[in-house]
Specification:
By secondary structure, this protein is of the alpha+beta class. It folds into 3 domains: 30 residues, no CATH class; 275 residues, Di-copper center containing domain from catechol oxidase (di-copper center containing domain from catechol oxidase, Orthogonal Bundle), CATH 1.10.1280.10; 160 residues, Jelly Rolls (Sandwich), CATH 2.60.120. The chain has 14 helices and 17 strands. The strands form 6 sheets. A 4-stranded antiparallel sheet has the order 8-17-11-14. A 4-stranded antiparallel sheet has the order 10-15-12-13. It has a 3-stranded mixed sheet with strand order 3-6-5, covered by helices on one side. α7 packs antiparallel against α9. The radius of gyration is 23 Å and the shape is globular. Bound molecules: copper (II) ion.
Length: 501
């Protein structure tokens, strides 16, 4: 990166020649890591409240695999114009670079004291990214002078689409504005089954309630964990071994146009999940609904939007999704258990069962599989293996997961399978779920990596595994192709099973 009067140019763009008058200093870095991504010119500014515009047409987002020739041309024209804004003025808040910095800032980036709020690892994840897609899309609309312009989505959960969409470019055509030089996946790259496959999608889309699916104030939801995180990591490095720019590091992820197609699908699946069952609902909590964030809108107006303003996408945001043509790889199975009864039972459930803890000290994850075993009193084992309205649901909590800001972590969790390995298929009835933490930044000082808490509904797994005198919980760190990761710096504090989600 080249720094000049507080403005950052990316090294590759300097090399591409548009700022040929600049000399590349010895400190220029190939990873283009922003050291300060705070928005420019907003201190002391009062944001204007967001107002829906009912006169706008409803923008229809389509699969990146189903765009017409003219839609592909329009998409390329939009990103070309976005990149041109940055070439003309790197500090333009609407330009490609500063748009990417928006995501960086909201994952704790910025110079000391100016860091944005952390919007990952909690129930802020879905609504913040929806708002971000909205403002980004409206900027692109303005750039192409077409209010019907819509971002495409990459439906990696559709049958036959676990492959990188070709419109996003290949290394032989760097003139494609959708292509990103700092990307490992390319057209034809097939997603590893550890990243997206039916078992993972079945777990995520069958999450029984909003805190499991969307997270809570202090825990990560199923979708953010997987496949959101693994797709980020894979796009940056298909071997899953390294945290690579752009997509594999949160500070740079949104500098790859693919970010918006990946998050388009995440956002679409939020609506899909809500429509699967009347018990799938958004949160009623005022603390969630009234929470909001600031963005530059397409007219460079510093605008505040609240979560309640992103929930009705058609009325408030004027956007919607056209369903993909192929069937999804996952299936939804309504829960036959009377949930209300089970939740009543939870109130009289036994105390939490501690599977692993080290008196508040960190436990290293390591690179090899590790198993913790806990003795189960008879009554407890019977209760956990029971599938009836009188038995409460069981949850596995992994708390205090810590990863240095410049590192990532990805591991699978199994019950009752102590010899599980990185090549154990996720179709195993013993598979509980995947934890994935995407690296934040290579600039250590700028980003804090708050501890992550993950919760899995293990009721179904416990019924299949039928624990008796003891229960084995196995963590399997993974990379691609059945490999173990070569390094691991992740730690966790405790693993607990209880009956409260
Ligand atoms: Cu994000």
């Amino acid at each position: 990166m080249v720094e000049r009067a507080g403005i950052y140019f990316r090294r590759r763009d300097v090399l591409a020649g548009f700022t040929a008058s600049l000399l590349l200093p010895a400190t220029a870095r190939a990873d283009d890591m922003p050291s300060d991504c705070a928005p420019i010119g907003v201190s002391g500014k009062t944001p204007v409240p967001y107002k829906p515009d009912p006169t706008l047409p409803v923008r229809v987002r389509k699969s990146a695999f189903e765009l017409s020739k003219s839609e592909v041309d329009r998409l390329k024209a939009a990103y070309s114009a976005l990149r041109n804004l940055t070439k003309t003025d790197p500090s333009d808040p609407l330009g490609w670079l500063r748009q990417g910095y928006v995501h960086c800032w909201y994952c704790g980036g910025g110079s000391n004291g100016t860091q944005g709020e952390e919007i990952h690892g909690s129930w802020r994840f879905f609504p913040w990214h929806r708002a971000y897609l909205h403002f980004h899309e409206r900027i692109l609309c303005k750039l192409v002078g077409d209010d019907t312009f819509a971002l495409p989505y990459w439906d990696w959960d559709s049958s036959g689409r676990q492959t990188f969409p070709s419109v996003y470019g290949d290394p032989d055509d760097v003139s494609n504005p959708l292509f990103d030089m700092l990307r490992s996946a390319k057209p034809g790259s097939i997603i590893n089954p550890q990243v997206v496959s039916a078992p993972i999608m079945n777990k995520t889309m069958n999450s029984r309630n909003n805190s499991l699916f969307m997270g809570s104030a202090n825990s990560v939801g199923a979708m953010e964990n997987s496949p959101h995180g693994p797709v980020h990591i894979w796009t940056g490095d298909t071997s899953l071994q390294n945290a690579n720019s752009d997509m594999g590091i949160l500070a740079t992820a949104a500098q790859d146009p693919m970010f918006f197609a990946h998050h388009g699908n995440i956002d679409r699946l939020w609506s899909v999940w809500l429509g699967l069952s009347p018990t799938h609902k958004n949160f009623d909590d005022k603390a969630w609904r009234d929470h909001g964030w600031q963005f530059y809108d397409e007219n460079k107006v510093w605008t505040r939007i609240t979560i309640s303003q992103v929930l009705d996408t058609v009325t408030s945001l004027r956007s919607t999704y056209q369903s993909p043509t192929p069937k999804p790889i996952w299936t939804f199975k309504p829960v036959p258990v009377a949930i209300a009864a089970a939740e009543t039972a939870a109130r009289t459930a036994p105390p939490p069962l501690v599977v692993a803890s080290n008196q508040g000290q960190a436990i290293a994850l390591g690179t090899a599989p590790s198993t913790k075993t806990v003795a189960l009193p008879k009554e407890r084992a019977r209760m956990m293996a029971m599938a009836s309205a009188s038995a409460p649901q069981s949850y596995l909590h992994i708390r205090g997961i810590q990863v240095p800001p410049d590192a990532q972590a990805m591991f699978n969790v199994f019950f009752g399978l102590p010899d599980a390995s990185p090549s154990t298929p996720l179709s195993s009835p013993n598979f509980v779920g995947t934890v994935a933490v995407v690296a934040k930044s290579k600039e250590m000082h700028a980003h804090v990596h708050p501890a992550i808490n993950a919760t899995f509904d293990v009721t179904g797994v416990l019924q299949d595994v039928k624990p008796n005198s003891e229960l084995a919980v196995t963590f399997v760190p993974i990379a691609a192709a059945g490999q173990a990761p070569t390094v691991s710096t992740a730690t966790y504090q405790e693993v607990v099973i209880d009956h409260n989600a």
